[in-house]
Amino acid sequence: MDIILAESPWDIFTALLIVCAGAAYFAQRPIKSLDSTMSMCIYIWHTLFCIYYAWFTLDNSADAPGYFRRSFNPRLEFGLGTKGVDAFTAIFTQGLNLSYIGVFLVFNIIGAIGLAAYAGALREILAVKSQNVRRFSTLFIFLPGVSFWSVAIGKDALAFFGTGLLAWGILNIRQRWVAILLAVLAYTLVRPHVVAVIVIALTASVIFSNRMSAGRKIILGGMSLAICVVALQFALSAIGLGDIGTSDDVYEFLEYRQSVNLEGGSSIDISSMNMAMRLFYCAFAPLFFGVGGGMGLVASLENLFILGVVIRGALNKYRVSADLPSGAKWFYVVFAMISWIIFSNTTANLGIALRQKWMYMPMLLLFVLACFPNRRREAAYDQFNWPPARQ
């Protein structure tokens, strides 16, 4: 099946209709932490990347054409992971008869919601910072890598949708529990094993941010562990790996995941590196080597910028406590660290790591930026009705 962006005037009309519907939606500020101008800028920026990436996939290796082709299978079975994305894509291909670019634009809206939620979390967290820091933080919203990997047909748009909603929702769980639920559902569909990480992070945020007895913490931790075990077994069964019951099974699972991800557009194989090097490469590589061409240069500049900010934030952490609600602080740290370790041990190729890091990098950056010195603490807390974070 040859992939064509649009084949008929109807395809062009429906594509324009989707773009207009997305613009109308973002003009209404779905993330109330953002003003209308920023909300629309995010959508327009994200849509430009969507159009470019759709065109890029016509002549370059990518996952999106495969998802699009498989979605036309009349005997498509629902599942999780790749099967889940195939079934979700079929809603728009078989159900609504959308073209390739039309389906791309649908996934673009999903990814843009995640980006807007991430921007909303940044806006709230950095409200206590100086004007220069707040202006500087805008660069993190418009980093090319964020939008490039979250616009396409596939798992990444849905995963980033989940990450953004989690980052934003955890700042006010009582009022944003729907956002957290949608994030969990999105991750259940595309990467069900990450649900266990979400459970652990939520449990840590409750245990370490509340004054409860040691007995209650032990009970809550035990319940969380049981839920995680069930979630992991369910996830493994859903992707056809069965049960993992011993350390040998875990080792075989990690080898399997590395072999699956060995292909991915980069010549650097990180599976044979030691743990520290894998962690570094998964988060901050390439750095001007290993990935050639213009895209490699852009990715390297972006990673150098992120690495510099992370180092500066780490140095600030020795002098300044992260100015975050306690629950959000623990959630960001636990989710980022566990996800970072998992993906560095289940990803063998740097090209895949470039995409997958945007499931945990937003959490890491939010925590790091919260460690920058404050200038307007009380006024910002009054604006967002936050309690002061414990120092």
From TrEMBL:
The chain crosses the membrane at residues 12-28, 40-58, 98-118, 139-171, 177-206, 218-241, 283-310, 330-352. Keywords: Membrane, Transmembrane, Transmembrane helix. The keyword Membrane applies. It comes from the Bacteria. This is EpsG family protein.
